[in-house]
User: Fold this.
Amino acid sequence: VQLQASGGGLAQPGGSRRLSCALSGTVFSINSMSWYRQAPGNQRELVATIPSGGSTNYADSVKGRFTISRDNAKNTVYLQMNSLEPEDTAVYYCHANVDLMTWATMTLERKEYWGQGTQVTVSS
Assistant:
């Protein structure tokens, strides 16, 4: 199972960018997909989560500006980022919480995977 993130780059304050993250490989189910970010000198923080069922969740700092969405047919999660601020500058990581089935033993195992990170820089 791999996560491939894309869409990072340079944006001006007030601008927009759209991140994508595609999950490849065989999973039994995807429980949730999320975006995290880590700015230099800071800990990695949760930006937004979209579960397979239920409502999305956002960090207070991005509410009303960022939107997370998911294409289940493509196993892809998106993060639409609007009204970008310099404080949004960070490496953005996608994350997936999935169930893997071992059919020989009919056993489900819950695992987490991380994408490689994509840099978003907001600067004039």
Q: What stands out?
A: The chain has a mean pLDDT of 95. The longest strand covers residues 90-102.
